[in-house]
Amino acid sequence: MIGIIDYGMGNLRSVENALKAIGCQSVISDDPAVLDQCEKLILPGVGAFGDCMKNIVERGLDSYIKNAVSKGIPLLGICLGMQMLFEESEEKGLHQGLGFLKGRIVRMETDLPVPEIGWNELEWNQESPLRELLSEHPYVYYVHSYCAGDMKEENLTAYSMYGDIRVAGLVQGEHVMGTQFHPEKSGEDGLKILRYFAEVFS
Which entry of 38, 52, 79, 147 is annotated as an active-site residue? Predict the structure, then answer.
């Protein structure tokens, strides 16, 4: 069972439906007693960083999530959920994140349209079991105006180029994994990434 963390914002149902498509049971909840019954957790996200973190803190879910990961419960952050894995964000002011990964979320500075909306190729920064599971040139679906900056190369598994910006697409740390793109909207490769998290990632 995978727990989809409900903090009042996020693409909850689309993630739930994607997990159902790969035969994975899930539950949407903000109740620690319910989430404690889950082997893994997903933190989805849509909206502004500060608003999301405010909702998480007000519900006491920040301390719950940190405690769960410290106990070895794997956590997947999707889109804004991935950004919240980092130390801080400069979106509409400076806001503290969950701090699992070193780095700051910064606005994308490019001549191309911002936000980036659409498909982009995922390129590998380092070897990963996912490389053998996905297609030779995997394309994934992004919707975002901010991306991870000043992060450790060891945490960057794969990226996409948007103009001259290297967008951190897939990140990993100890018991945490994040996708800036939406795997639930990224076709077969996206479902394979969710299956990898559900069945392999620890």
Answer: 79
